[in-house]
Amino acid sequence: MPVETDFLDGLNESQRQAVQHFCGPLLVVAGAGSGKTRALTYRIAYLILNHQVNPENILAVTFTNKAAKEMKERIELIFAQRLAQEKEGERLELLPEHKQVKLRSRAYQDITKHLWIGTFHSLFARILRQDINKYQDPKGYQWDRNFTIYDESDAQSLVKNIVTKQLNLDDKKFNPRYLRYSISNAKNQGFYPEDVLAQQPNYRGRVISEVYQEYQAQLASNNALDFDDLILIPARLFSQNESILGYWHKQFQHILVDEYQDTNRIQYQLINLLATNGEPKKQNLNWENRSIFVVGDADQSIYSFRMADFTILLEFQQDFGDGLPDDDTRTMVKLEENYRSRENILEVANTLIENNSERIDKILKPTRGYGEEIYCYKAENEIEEGQFIRRQLLTLQNENPELNWGDFAILYRTNAQSRVIEEAIRDKIPYQIIGGLKFYDRKEIKDALAYLRLLTNPNDTVSLLRIINTPRRGIGQKTIDQLISASQELGVPLWEIIRDETSVNTLAGRASKKVNEFAKLIQRYQANLDQLPAVEILDGILSESGYRQDLQNQGTDEAENRIENLKELDSAMTQFAEENEDNSLEGFLANAALASDLDNLNEKEEKVSLMTLHAAKGLEFPVVFMVGLEQGLFPNRRTLDDPAALEEERRLCYVGITRAQEQLFISHAEERRLWGSREPAIPSQFLSELPEELVNYSSPPIKPRRQEKKDTKKDTGQNWQVGDRVFHKTFGEGTVTHVLGNGEKTNLAVQFPGIGRKIIDPKIASLELI
Ligand SMILES: Nc1ncnc2c1ncn2[C@@H]1O[C@H](COP(=O)(O)OP(=O)(O)OP(=O)(O)O)[C@@H](O)[C@H]1O
Ligand SMILES: [Mg+2]
């Protein structure tokens, strides 16, 4: 039996309107949990199924890689359901035969492989893989298609080198982190080094500009790009080259953007160019078989520190609409029902956000009655706050066996808060830190990737320097410095020197044999790059370089752990090859460089998730703990004197509250040691903005009372039928979709709207028949 008879049934009237809108611009604005992301996802399926749009003509921008993955999975599910219906002959015969054939063969193919779904960074990295060689940089820098993507730590080490080694500046006075941030800011506004100086015509401005200039030169000579370049260079390329823009404009007939309120100006420029082909006059735009569809919520704009600007969302209709009198109704849909949170949670969120002055009022109605009480817990200090969380987690899990550890999230304002919470829960509760040390940030993974990057892009000097003596092979720093200075004097990449035996023999003295061996190893694998599957290349180079052996020799737990992680990298490569059309090594490396913290989030693993409020955007959890509501921490002290920044903190708090589906716990401490010093803390001003009658300030009972249920089928263990409507204490109303097993061992699969399907043992959880 198909789970949904028609996939549009899973949408309300306004969502359906948004999904069925075919051509032209459409803006969906709505509050948290109102089904924006769901509408966007269904729209993709609808374009393919009902308008026969080719998947490769659809560009969908998500905020995280994880969201992209989920979207693909959801679309696959819709196709699978459709396929099931086809087999039952329900509706396909209504279509003309050629369409039936087309649809069937489409559905059987792995359609989502051909969709362009991803973050801005991953999508435009892919476009640059095709076209970067056509980019004309005003400074004459060039990149080729095998470019390497530098992550934050690569970029910072480059900046640090420039500051200390090249410009001989004091890195205490000119903090490389700060400089890197300034460069990033400049890039996010489309500024060149000269623009920075013009904006800031003083000594500091000159230093930033100079470091920026040198940084860019070195990126280019390493054939590398940083994250900001992945957006900025396509924007410049599209502006300078009509035919390339025309090509991608033609390719992307339907553009969809989630979380549009957090786009910055350059990202906006890219979207605008792709949608309009650079046509400045709105009346000349031709929307035949084309659309741009964006969804967002100005109340959830929380990335202004990355130059995100929610006025972009507010200006959408002005940018893309035709300005005729009925434009407003044609180009905007509002969603007004919240499907995620219990009514009391929603009311608390709505009341809080009303304190912001800079907002457009909107309606957000609950669809799910009142849930468990919201508690605000006052802890003595941060350690006791951790104990509180631990107690609640254990109690709730114990009382509600159907709650998995993966159903809980703990949200905090800054990463530093996680340590104490971890300490409190680590012995009993499996947890994961989202945004802690990422898989791809671990040393062994970065080393392995550096080998692979060097194979595909020998000019990548950062990678080369990372592994030239890793594992130790007797190439000392002095030798390396000698080789580097030769490459700098000749103005050629370091690899050019290293791969030439004669040069090495001249420069490297006693270490020359080692350098030559290293160069030969790399060259041998380079020559085989196209013949061997990526996984074999990885295995081969890790063995032959002695890297794996070195770890084995160490014999410590830590080394063992690193070996395990390298195995995990193998799996990541295999999985990538299976899931992606572009399964080249370059494709994998780009993907790895872009993998964000959130990719670690794997609900199937059943772990409590700890993350910052920023990282929680777009996600949802049955039970949410929002901790550290103290003045100076949340809202953050830097925002206290700046009304606009304070409003952004309040939006962040709104985001936090609205992640909760069933239950919300808020906490603050009377005293907190953070970043080394212990200080008294006063409750966050946001707490006083919450409706008093909806927040319970006493301690929650350690063992929450079980609600007495009338007419439960608990313990009877029989007579359950598919289609039974039931009420569950945590998940609310649902429908039994499957009865699994029988007698004592009967379990039920229950579909809860807005939550999903849960397998429940009716003997343990009381289910009320309704
Ligand atoms: N019409 C609907 N009927 C039932 N459930 C729905 C409906 N629309 C959305 N949902 C469910 O409501 C929850 C919130 O939806 P979704 O994540 O799409 O909201 P959103 O507007 O994107 O939220 P956010 O602003 O936090 O990104 C999800 O669990 C989703 O499956
Ligand atoms: Mg969303």
Automatic annotation (TrEMBL):
Belongs to the helicase family. UvrD subfamily. InterPro entries: ATP-dep_DNA_helicase_PcrA, DExx_box_DNA_helicase_dom_sf, DNA_helicase_UvrD-like_C, DNA_helicase_UvrD/REP, P-loop_NTPase, UvrD-like_ATP-bd. One of its GO terms (molecular function) is DNA binding. The keyword Cytoplasm does not apply. Residues 9-342 form the UvrD-like helicase ATP-binding domain. NCBIfam families: pcrA (TIGR01073). Pfam families: PcrA_UvrD_tudor, UvrD-helicase, UvrD_C. The keyword ATP-binding applies. Gene3D superfamilies: 1.10.10.160, P-loop containing nucleotide triphosphate hydrolases (3.40.50.300), PCRA, domain 4 (1.10.486.10). Residues 343-618 form the UvrD-like helicase C-terminal domain. It comes from Euhalothece natronophila Z-M001. Signal peptide: none annotated. Keywords: ATP-binding, DNA-binding, Helicase, Hydrolase, Isomerase, Nucleotide-binding. This is ATP-dependent DNA helicase. CDD domains: DEXQc_UvrD, SF1_C_UvrD. GO terms for cellular component: cytosol; DNA helicase complex. GO terms for biological process: DNA replication; recombinational repair; response to radiation. It catalyses: ATP + H2O = ADP + phosphate + H(+); Couples ATP hydrolysis with the unwinding of duplex DNA by translocating in the 3'-5' direction. Its EC number is 5.6.2.4. The gene is pcrA. The lineage of its organism: Bacteria, Bacillati, Cyanobacteriota, Cyanophyceae, Oscillatoriophycideae. PANTHER family: ATP-DEPENDENT DNA HELICASE SRS2 (PTHR11070:SF2), UVRD / RECB / PCRA DNA HELICASE FAMILY MEMBER (PTHR11070). ATP binds at residues 30-37. It is an enzyme of class 5 (isomerase).
